[in-house]
Amino acid sequence: MTFSIKPISAEDTYPLRRKVLWPDGPDELVLLADDHLPSTQHFGLFETDQLIGVISLFEQDGAMQFRKLAVDHAFQSKGCGTALLQHVLDVAQSSGTKRLWCNARVTAMPFYAGFGFSVETESFYKGDEEYKIAYREYSLRDSR
Questions:
Q1: What is the pLDDT of residues 22-33, one digit of tens each?
Q2: What share of the chain is helix, strand, coil (3-state, %, to 5)?
């Protein structure tokens, strides 16, 4: 498979966010208030011309949060999530951010651990899903 990652609009992310992350959830779990801020970036993973994965990156106070990493079910376990996360790691490192983090489903912790993320101990819930904050800290030398 040949994948490419390109910037996309917030609206382009919504169908996959809905389908993969919250198929039965309310709109506020899919549509984010910060989706249209000038500092927000959205990326799409394409297989030829088909959008098969999305991730959004939000910047605030020298830190970056990625949210709504979603890969179409038919393309999961094929390196798509890895490609999207690696792209965000590269963007974060080149931007000079101090911290990259996400609200991670506890079931996804092994995935994030493979990228060197640390995990805060406290859990919280969105509906029935348990989450923890996963993060990577960057020093000034990391962004050179």
A1: 888 777 778 888
A2: 35, 35, 30
pLDDT digits (tens, 9 = 90+) for 63-72: 999 999 999 9
Which secondary structure element, helix H or strand E, spans residue 91, and what is its range?
Answer: helix 80-95
Identify the CA nearest to 115 among candidates 92, 136, 144, 141. 136
Which is nearest to 34 in space by CA: 15, 52, 10? 10
pLDDT of residue 1: 63
* Contact indicator for 58, 65 with CB cutoff of 8 Å: yes
Check residue 42 and report its DSSP letter: E
Domains of the chain, by residue range, sit at: 3-143
96: left (phi over 0), alpha (psi -120 to 50) or beta: left
pTM for the full predicted model: 0.88
Task: Mention the CATH class of domain 3-143.
Answer: alpha beta
Give the span between the Cα atoms of 109 and 98, in whole angstroms.
Answer: 21
